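[agent] plan:
  1. take the single chain provided in the ticket
  2. run structure prediction with default settings
  3. attach structure tokens to the ticket
  4. add a short note for the reviewer (M.T.)
[agent] executing step 1
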Amino acid sequence: MKIGSLFIRGVYYLSVTLALIATLLVGLFFWGVQEAFASGLALLIAVIIAVVYFHPKLYNYRFVVPAMTALVVIIVVPVVYVVSLSFTNLSESNKLSYQRAVPYLTAQTFVADDAPEFAVNGWIDQEQAYLFLNADDLWLQTTEPVPLDLAAPTTFDLVVTEEIPSDHFDRKFAVGQRALLDQLTLVSPAGDVLTKHKLRSFAPSSPRFTQVSHAQFNDNETGNVVTANFETGQFLVTESEDPEAIGQVLSPGFLKASNLSNFVDILTDLDQIKVIAMVLGWSVFAAAFTVCSSFVIALILASLLNWQALREREWYKFIIVACYALPAFSVINAFFWIFTTNQAPWGELLPGGPVFTVIDQLFGIQLDWQFNPVLSRVKFLIVQFWMFMPFMFILCLGVIQSIPVSLYEAARLEGAGVRQSFRRITLPLAFLPLAPVLIISFATAFNDLSLVDQLTFGTPEIPGSVPLASHVDLLVSFANRQAFGNAYTRGAGFGLYSLASTLFTLIFVLLALISWLYLRKVRLQPAGREY
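[agent] step 2 finished; step 3 output follows
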């Protein structure tokens, strides 16, 4: 017994030690990539592990720490991080802190107009490039052959050479190896740094910006004065001989705290408020309709399929549950093609889908399920209902099977019919236990970004909406569109992470308020209370 106890204790302490070391290594990794918050969080978790799992008086907390740690890391930290971004100007052009943006600015180089140009010559032999440069009568070559498989920018030294193997020169060398030449930085014997200047030449480059004070820089190429604007997080031209150049924004920008300006900009823009109100109204209606309709239909189906006299009811249950097992991505794509009209959102002419074709053949009516505002919303509700109903059915079936049969027998003796039993017994006894699930389902339907993106592709757009929105946009897809663009404009000047975080924070607050009002309204029964 003692040997077994010692062995178990040794395994316990070894496991805790390994977990502690792994957490510290994670913290060191984040510290190395200059992520102070993540590194501090890892260090805090390591301290908690060391204190709780090695202190004998904290034995009872050992079973709670893993769950609480997972809760903080998976839920609390992402929420706090997203909310914190809404108080910054983070975007594709404003990612770095000022201390990290300055080196990027001062690392930029330029080639002076009077700088000599060195023509590129060379050839390829056995996966290596032999590189020669010449300007007038001066010939330079790299001290060693350049490998063709360079994976990152590399610097090579040059030496003066008198042996010019022109017989080996490939006339297409500079054109064929332009990707390789773009990664090369060459240092001449005089110490000049040569970089690729044109397709077939290298030239000495000089630092473009010189820092003269904490927030001011001289542009050596244009003679302009550049100043860091800490209110906007941008480097701006403040002095120039060219009046049109004043106010020009230079890259990169830098990160700064914006306090409440993001929220003020959104909540004081009347045009944006009008569009948000339209999108919000549709989002609430769509989520409420989907949850309520899927719950009621699922409850009715679960009640019918719980009827013992119904034949083959297990097969019916299997068919409904099988719909829930299908991946959402394939279901959405299937419905997209089912409702396809003769024109896709991206402008391509396509054969009509089954619904479009059948209605056209029977009634001679070509319904535009993609660009008609009403029909596109109907299509959206049909697909969202299809995706939510099997899940609701599984939950309702489990709740109904837990309702005592004696309640229905007593109601039948009192003369209650099927509808009265459903309204007086089934509906309230199923609704109260499922109230938290209905809240989660409402939040899921309210934030169903993938359905909007894959089913509607951001169409049809609301004419004249500023900012641009579609008739089927949910609030989350509207926020995603403003911050990152849609499928056709993503990456074209978007990447406004602070705007997305601000809108998502407002969505979070709105859903929290709706959930609180809902819970207060239904007055959830405490566990163990009899109905």
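[agent] step 4 note for reviewer: The chain has three domains: 2-85, 109-207, 270-522.
[agent] ticket updated
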